[in-house]
Design a protein that fits this description.
Elements lengths: L1 H31 L3 E3 L1 H24 L8 H22 L7 E3 L17 H16 L3 H30 L2 H4 L7
Antiparallel strand pairs: 1-2
């Protein structure tokens, strides 16, 4: 099971690095066209949460001896589903996808792909990852602690900040006629 964890962990870290490179490239493209960054004050906490999560899941999994949980196959299935949803989300947003809140004034909000069904699919993906990866390997404390931290940060800070930024300079309200309540 150590091999399974190591492979999954390395792939996840490589995916995150690739996403950061893509986000940086998309940020430059958007800012060259007049995009505005919002919510920069809380972005560092998101980075710390994700870094802390990766360290915690690795530490707890090693300390538990790479034990698979009794629900590992279900959690692995959900984790892989989240990865497919992530690819769909990134492809749907194209050059507008980012890890930061960066909005292009007067841009038409993307409403295709998973955005036809849910406003913030990336946050659902992150929540699924934070819950499922540790539960594959019996790292229950990591799953509980980081699910609570993630929900508190995303639901209470990040999503309202993103919706506010989108409402101010794009057609977000027109596309999603019932804004999420704070």
């Amino acid at each position: 099971m150590a091999v399974l964890f190591t492979v999954m962990f390395i792939l996840l870290v490589a995916q995150r690095v690739g996403e950061l490179i893509l986000a940086r490239k998309n940020e430059r493209w958007m800012k060259e066209r007049g995009a505005i960054e919002s919510g920069a004050d809380h972005y560092k906490y998101i980075v710390m949460l994700h870094t802390g999560f990766l360290l915690a899941v690795a530490l707890e999994t090693v300390l538990r001896g790479f034990t698979l949980s009794f629900i590992w196959t279900t959690m692995l299935g959900l984790f892989l589903f989240a990865q497919m949803l992530r690819i769909w989300t990134i492809r749907s947003l194209g050059k507008f996808w980012n890890t930061k809140i960066i909005v292009l004034p007067k841009a038409n909000v993307v409403s295709k792909g998973p955005y036809r069904f849910i406003r913030h699919p990336n946050y659902v993906i992150v929540a699924l990852e934070i819950l499922t990866l540790p539960l594959i390997f019996s790292s229950y404390w990591t799953a509980i602690v980081f699910t609570v931290l993630n929900a508190g940060l995303l639901l209470k800070v990040r999503i309202p900040a993103e919706e506010k930024a989108l409402n101010e300079v794009t057609n977000y309200t027109d596309v999603f006629s019932e804004p999420t309540k704070n």
